[in-house]
Design goal:
Bound molecules: 3-methyl-2-oxobutanoic acid, zinc ion
Structural class: alpha/beta
Number of domains: 3
CATH superfamily of the largest domain: Aldolase class I
CATH topology of the largest domain: TIM Barrel
Radius of gyration: 30 Å
């Protein structure tokens, strides 16, 4: 099995995404997560670019253990020295030197002739070698460079000591066959090519970043440069999660492995999205919210019979919660019944038909029918949950400089139970007071408050999702009131009553499910 080195440049090229500036703290957090993900190299920044970038590379170098830590430098003395200083505390430091080799860049940007570029590239690698053993060289805009000249530059930098030569498709201009053949010809034409590792760095201007990288791998590339969520200059870089999951999923054809712990992919994607503020499109391959969601009834039915009918990857393998069947107007009865089962409700045939009819009516009006809606259909139509606990009154005490305190009185049959607690906010204080008097313990998974009408006397509708410490399932509660604290308390009690009802049923049911 060929091992592909994963070089992550989220913190350097990825940070060049318009609007994606990261502070040092965020960079360290991402770098630590990249290390947990198992990337081989973290390109932490471009130290000469700013004081902040220098500090970030330097901090990442001393804190993050595991991957090689790399800094970028132009083929200039000042850049190389600054980079060497920034990475010096890394256990495995790398300097990445770049210099453009295409006619257009040499003529208009650098205003230098080929001979001068060749000399400068050779010199820069030799100079960087004084500070660090592990040198990578990139002939910028390689895919638009004259092939013979490019091969001469590659040969020269390998001779000067570059351990990795990275071939960038800087402007995302290449197409897969062409790029693959470029890599193959460098491998075959450059006499010392076996003395260095060949890498690729593909931009996504035409949406071909991943395809070009794969074509390069199939033609001999051993390192792929990529970013989380495909971030990067303009349309971004090849996306790490896509490259890795293609190599994993199609190992039969590609015969390659990486060191990536794929179960960390989703978490890493979320973290990068949160810290850069760049949202991941829902239909993004591998890590998008819809990547494992199925809407069509035929697909949902297939998935329920055999997951692999419509899924080529397991959601858990990328750290995603699981397959999601979106309940909407395309969903069939099978999916509807399964969804209810997951929520702890198993309906008898007649009730199922009735509830399914209600669901279809609602789905016609609403794009997506959520679990809360399903439970509401079931409860309103088919069961009435006994109000084991009922709110009598509550008081919120707020004193300047102190946490809010709640006093809550709840009736359980004829008994009035009173409890009090302080909390981070009034709702938290109330929930803690309720837990203390009812002696139940719940994890609050979700709390949402929305106004159902307009104006000052608007009704506040509260939804809560809780998981009893003693159970594996989740329970939903909701309530509405013009007083949002009251709505919050009642929503919590509603969930608690449902839990008690389900538990009672569970005890009676052979199937340990809520049988209605
Ligand atoms: O796109 C590019 O050419 C680069 C180089 C610095 C590798 O980002
Ligand atoms: Zn780039």
């Amino acid at each position: 099995m060929k091992r592909i080195i994963i070089f992550d440049t989220t913190l350097r090229d990825g940070e060049q995404s318009p609007g994606a500036s990261l502070d040092i703290k965020a960079k360290i957090e991402i770098a630590k997560q990249l290390a947990r993900l198992g990337v081989d190299v973290v390109e932490a920044g471009f130290p000469v670019a700013s004081k902040g970038d220098f500090m970030a590379v330097s901090e990442v170098s001393s804190i993050v253990k595991g991957p090689s830590i790399c800094g970028l430098a132009r083929a200039k003395k000042e850049d190389i020295e600054r980079c060497a200083e920034a990475i010096k505390r890394a256990k495995k430091p790398r300097i990445h030197v770049f210099l453009a080799t295409s006619k257009i860049h040499m003529r208009y940007k650098l205003k230098k002739a080929k001979a001068e570029i060749l000399r400068q590239a050779e010199w820069a690698v030799g100079y960087a070698r004084r500070f660090c053993d592990d040198i990578e060289f990139s002939p910028e805009d390689a895919s638009r460079s004259d092939r013979d000249f490019l091969c001469r530059v590659v040969e020269a930098v390998i001779k000067a000591g570059a351990k990795t030569v990275n071939i960038p498709d800087t402007v995302g201009y290449a197409i897969p066959d062409e790029f693959g053949s470029l890599i193959r010809s460098i491998k075959t034409k450059v006499p010392n090519s076996n003395k260095a590792r060949l890498s690729v760095h593909c931009h996504n201007d035409l949406g071909l970043g991943v395809s070009n990288s794969l074509s390069a791998v199939r033609n001999g590339a051993e390192q792929v440069e990529c970013t989380i969520n495909g971030l990067g200059e303009r349309a971004g870089n090849a996306s790490l999660e896509e490259i890795v999951m293609i190599l994993n999923t199609r190992r039969d054809i590609l015969g390659c492995a990486t060191s990536i712990k794929t179960e960390e992919l989703y978490k890493t994607s979320r973290l990068v999205s949160k810290l850069t503020g760049i949202v991941v499109q829902p239909n993004k391959a591998v890590v998008g919210q819809n990547a494992f969601s199925h809407e069509a009834g035929i697909h949902q039915d297939g998935i329920l019979k055999k997951r692999t009918t419509y899924e080529i990857m397991k959601p858990e393998d990328v750290g995603f919660g699981g397959t999601r069947l979106v309940m909407g107007k395309h969903s069939g009865r099978h999916a509807f019944a399964e969804r209810l089962k997951k929520l702890g409700v198993e309906l008898k045939r007649d009730n199922l038909i009735k509830a399914f009819g209600r669901f279809k009516d609602l789905a016609d009006k609403k794009k997506e029918v959520f679990d809360e809606d399903l439970m509401a259909i079931v409860e309103e139509e088919l069961v009435s949950i006994p109000e084991t606990y009922r709110l009598e009154y509550f008081n919120i005490i707020r004193e300047r400089g102190r946490l809010p305190k709640a006093e809550v009185a709840i009736r359980k049959n004829a008994v009035l139970l009173k409890g009090s607690s302080s909390g981070d906010g009034p709702v938290d204080a109330c929930y803690k007071a309720i837990d203390s008097v009812t002696r139940h313990s719940f994890q609050l998974l979700d709390y949402s408050l929305k106004s159902t009408t307009g104006g000052k006397d608007a009704l506040g509708e509260v939804h809560v999702r809780i998981r009893p410490v003693v159970a594996l399932y989740e329970v939903l509660g909701r309530s509405a009131s013009t007083d949002i604290i009251e709505a919050s308390i009642k929503a919590y009690l509603n969930a608690l009553n449902k839990f008690l009802f389900a538990r009672q049923k569970e005890k009676k049911s052979v199937h340990k499910k809520l049988k209605l």
